[in-house]
């Protein structure tokens, strides 16, 4: 199989670090609102990848996180305060909603489904290693990663410093923090003030009470569940910088193991009405709304009709078209008719070319009436269709 590796900027043949076992970590949700199509596109794309690996005879060890806390007064804390509920209850409520939506889409739940708030000990271990080898420093109870100590910092994104600063500001990274040696230094631990409101969580550590940085959370959860080196790390391409860039620097400096992840796979962004789908803009298409009108199979067909690496825009026309196409295919595979043409070999070859699900679904649709319905049904199940 060949996949595009963001780290090397080219398509490579896939090889595991451990024979016949594929370790995969995919960045998960921040649970303060409902599941939209952008989320579903990422997780269903990786769901198809994982199912394909299993079909090919690999053992897959898959981790995904829930970012229920981090160092900033983030959306969870703001929303919890607005609604006068605890951040724990808000996080739990929206995580359940997310899992319900994904279960509806016939999503394979990860082997390790990890909450950042429950993984503080591993975060502390990694931070202590970074302090011990002088890759990080403490100032006034806060801990920062010194990016200037990493000559390869930026190898994933390929960005220049001025571009990093701009994107970091958009992500509300604390680049104006005068306590840092460099504006781009990564916050690993932020202390909580003595007079901090009670609704703000604080955790004990050797550095004092505080909260971990967003980036160190995923390093810790990947290492704790999958080991110091993993095969595939994934997520939306908007996470390449700063999040995934920071993960590489932290993980490799803490463990001394290079590469932290052998392959980096990133999904495209989903737009609606001309803008990237986002909670801040409010231009969201919710799974909870779509499932009132369409089957899980039709929604999955629409999602996988877009290549995982490509940006695309959702339209009602595209959804209706996907629904019709899937129903036509379903009618054929239930027809009971027999045909000699076995599409399996060609469909496998397409998936092996960087998980080309759009070409697979196009091939299946164009061969209605020609291909063997039983073999077609079997291959749709490989991609997670519930038949």
What key phrases describe this protein's structure?
single chain; 387 residues; alpha/beta; Rossmann fold; 2 domains; five-stranded parallel sheet; four-stranded antiparallel sheet; 13 helices; globular
Helical percentage: 40-55%
Strand content: 15-25%
Structural class: alpha/beta
Series of H and E elements: EEEHEHHEHEEHEEHEHEEEHHEHHHH
Structure in words:
The protein is 41% helix and 17% strand. It has 387 residues and is α/β, with parallel strands linked by helices. Helix 7 (240-255) links the parallel strand 10 and strand 11 (261-267). Helix 4 (120-132) packs across helix 6 (214-226) and helix 11 (344-351) runs antiparallel to helix 12. It is globular and about 75 Å long. The protein starts with a strand and ends in a 5-residue tail after the last helix. The model has no long low-confidence stretch (mean pLDDT 94).
């Amino acid at each position: 199989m060949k996949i595009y590796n963001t780290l090397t900027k080219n398509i490579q043949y896939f090889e595991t670090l451990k024979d016949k076992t594929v370790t995969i970590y995919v960045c998960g949700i921040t649970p303060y609102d409902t599941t939209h199509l952008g989320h579903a596109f990422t997780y269903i794309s990786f769901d198809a990848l994982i199912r394909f690996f299993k079909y090919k005879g690999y053992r897959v060890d898959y981790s995904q996180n829930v970012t229920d806390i981090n160092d900033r007064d983030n959306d969870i804390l703001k929303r919890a305060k607005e609604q006068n509920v605890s951040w724990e209850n808000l996080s739990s409520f929206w995580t359940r909603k997310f899992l319900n939506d994904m279960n509806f889409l016939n999503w394979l739940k990860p082997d390790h489904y990890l909450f950042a708030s429950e993984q503080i000990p591993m975060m502390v271990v990694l931070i202590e290693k970074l302090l011990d080898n002088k890759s990080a420093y403490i100032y006034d109870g806060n801990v920062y990663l010194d990016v200037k100590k990493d000559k390869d910092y930026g190898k994933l994104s390929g960005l220049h410093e001025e571009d990093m600063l701009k994107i970091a500001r958009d992500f509300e990274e604390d680049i104006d923090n005068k306590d840092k040696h460099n504006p781009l230094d990564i916050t690993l631990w932020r202390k909580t003030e003595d007079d901090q409101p009670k609704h703000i969580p604080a955790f004990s550590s050797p550095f004092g009470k505080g909260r971990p940085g967003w980036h160190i959370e995923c390093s810790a959860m990947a290492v704790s569940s999958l080991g110091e080196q993993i095969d595939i790390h994934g997520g939306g391409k908007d996470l390449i910088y700063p999040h995934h860039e920071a993960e590489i620097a932290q993980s490799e400096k803490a463990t001394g193991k290079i590469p932290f992840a052998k392959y980096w796979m990133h999904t495209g962004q989903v737009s609606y009405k001309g803008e990237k789908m986002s909670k801040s803009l409010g231009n969201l298409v919710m799974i909870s709304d779509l499932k009132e009108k369409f089957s899980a199979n039709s929604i999955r067909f629409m999602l996988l009709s877009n290549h995982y690496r490509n940006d695309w825009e959702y339209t009602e026309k595209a959804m209706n078209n996907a629904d019709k196409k899937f129903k036509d295919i379903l009618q054929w595979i239930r027809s009971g008719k027999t045909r000699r043409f076995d599409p399996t070999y060609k469909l496998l070859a397409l998936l092996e070319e960087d998980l080309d699900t759009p070409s697979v679904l196009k091939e299946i649709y164009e061969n209605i009436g020609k291909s063997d319905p039983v073999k077609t049904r079997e291959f749709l199940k490989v991609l997670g269709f519930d038949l």
